[in-house]
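ok so I'm stuck.
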Amino acid sequence: MANILKDKEIEGLLGTVIINGMTENIRPNSYIIRLGSEGEFLGTGKSFVLGEKREQKKGIILPPGHSVGVSSIEQINFTKETVDELFPKQALHGFLAPTTDLSREGIVVSSTQIDAGFNGSLNWTLTNTSSQERRYIYGEKLFRLTIFKLDESEVPQTYYSGSYQSKMGYVRSNRMGAPVGMQESEWEEPFTDDGIEESLERLMKAGYPWQAVASQLKMIDNQFSMVSTEYQQIYDSIEVISNNVNDIENSINNSINNTINTIVNQNLGITVNSAVKDGITQLYNWALIRLMSAMGILAGLIITVTTSPIAYDFLVKYGAVIGLLIIIFATALFLWGRPKKNKDNKP
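replied:
not stuck anymore, here's the structure
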């Protein structure tokens, strides 16, 4: 029956089964594994190397919600050749679990086992589910190794010889990928056809850190909805103002046009009336002057002829010439009394 090794037996494994081990890390029935130098931040794919040299980083920072793959300083050698020298016809099997310090800090680490025959460094993944960042230094005690000694009836027929055998430091997953040629329709996805509200509610029920993320997204969605509503109100107000401005502009243009037309028509009527009045006055004065001139000439001739025999004889003798001269004088007087043209306007 398998037996758990006690502290004295574990101490005898240092240097052979537990390489790079320390006696200070031995517990009553376990050994504490330390944080090694190599690892990778899984969220960003950034690899790192820790150490005690001046140019090397001394530890890692694990923010909330992030995961990191780490390795161990110790190398575990459970090969048949090594174990037979200490426990003939027997084998060793290991059970690895995180220390309680990690669980108290909200760090999730899966427990794992070490098969008989394994040789190499140990790798784990740390996930920070707390609300605070966690910091771990190179060589910090993080994992508890419990070693089982298998009796002859429990020794496996085939020892471990997998893809991680004899690998040192941090080793990425060697899991085989999906078969070539599979269609997208052959894969089942976690997404649903629910709306954003249902998705956020499920995310909030998933616990930290997704609850915090969902709360922030919901707050952003509410703020975006408020901004969208306010923007629509502003757009509607601008459209109303624009329509009012167009109406005012049209009203002003119509008023200006009406005013201009009224002024033009009034000025034109005044101008036409003034011109007609001036023309009539000039024609009246001209006709009056012609009439008075003709009457004066006629009265003078009558008086002269009727009161003087000499004038009468002279009129009889030279009547044709005198009549012609009168016609010429009257014509000249008519032309002289005609209204004159202005320099800028015609009569």
